[in-house]
């Protein structure tokens, strides 16, 4: 995949369901993922890593225990490692995530919303 040109919008059109991240590319030990978000996710944290959200379209609220962070198109927010958070999308949000390879979408919470990282075709 290192020699392939990837288009973010084309990749997002291949994502069938919300909350199922798909690897767009890898950079060193990090994955660049595309994801569709809709509704409320689960409260979780990533004890060993930060998590970068880049909203491409829609409106996303990152709920933190002490405040809410509101993101619109082209906004970036980094959830620091170990900080409990819960993404909330009012309608479909398309986003790009950057996090270390092997990072699980539900972090330390686990559960039925845990999705294995999908590869784009």
From TrEMBL:
Report residue spans for region: Disordered. Answer: 101-121
Q: Which Gene3D superfamilies match?
A: Jelly Rolls
Note the coiled coil stretches, chain numbering.
none
Give every Cupin type-2 domain span. Answer: 39-97
Fetch the SUPFAM superfamilies from UniProt: RmlC-like cupins
PANTHER family, alphabetized: 16.7 KDA PROTEIN IN WHIE LOCUS
UniProt name for this protein: Mannose-6-phosphate isomerase-like protein (Cupin superfamily)
